[in-house]
Amino acid sequence: KYKEGVPCDTTQSWYADGQLKSWEVITPGKQMIDNANMYYQNGNPRYEIRPDYFKRWYENGQLEVHARTENDKMVGKVKFYDRYGKVIKIEWYENGELIKTKEKQK
Predict the structure, then answer these.
(1) In a 10 Å sphere around its CB, with 0-12 CB exposed, 13-18 middle and 19+ buried, how is residue 103 labelled?
(2) pLDDT digit string, tens, across residues 1-53
(3) Cα separation of 16 and 65, whole Å?
(4) Which of 32, 23, 29 is CA-nearest to residue 71?
(5) How far apart are CA 33 and CA 28, in angstroms?
(6) DSSP of the chain, one letter per residue?
(7) Half-sphere exposure in the Cβ direction for 93 (13 Å, CA)
(8) Given a cut of 90, is residue 92 above it in pLDDT?
(9) Do 69 and 77 form a contact (C-beta atoms < 8 A)?
C-alpha cells in the first residue's frame, strides 16, 4: 500500500470473536502512527487518530474528547464530554502547551 506515493504498512488486530479491534497505517521511517482506529469489543469506536485530529469515545458510543493536532501536538480548543454527550471541560492549546482550562458547571 502507498500513502502520498510512499510505501506504508497497514496492520490489523482482531478480538477472539472475530470483531475488528484496531487498524493502523505506519509510514516506514517515521516513529509514529499516521492513521489508526481502535474499537471496543461491542464494535463502537474507541480511538481515532489522524495527522490533524484525535478522538476518543466511551464504550457506550458517546464522544469523550476531540482534539485538533499539528505536528503531533494539540492545538486550539479541545473539548471533553461526559458519558451522555454534555461538554464538561474545554482546554485551549498553543503548540502543544496548555494555556487555558474552563470547567463546565454541573
Answers:
(1) exposed
(2) 555 555 567 889 999 999 999 988 877 766 567 789 999 999 999 999 998 99
(3) 28
(4) 32
(5) 10
(6) -EETTEE-EEEEEE-TTS-EEEEEEE-TT-SS-SEEEEE-TTS-EEEEEETTEEEEE-TTS-EEEEEEEETTEEEEEEEEE-TTS-EEEEEEEETTEEEEEEEPP-
(7) 16
(8) yes
(9) no
Residue pair 85/79 in contact by the 8 Å Cβ criterion: no
Residue the block writes with cell 485538533: 68
* Alpha carbon distances (Å) from 72 to 32, 39, 53, 69, 80: 9, 22, 9, 6, 19
**Residue with the three cell numbers 486550539:** 76
C-alpha cell read off for 7: 510505501
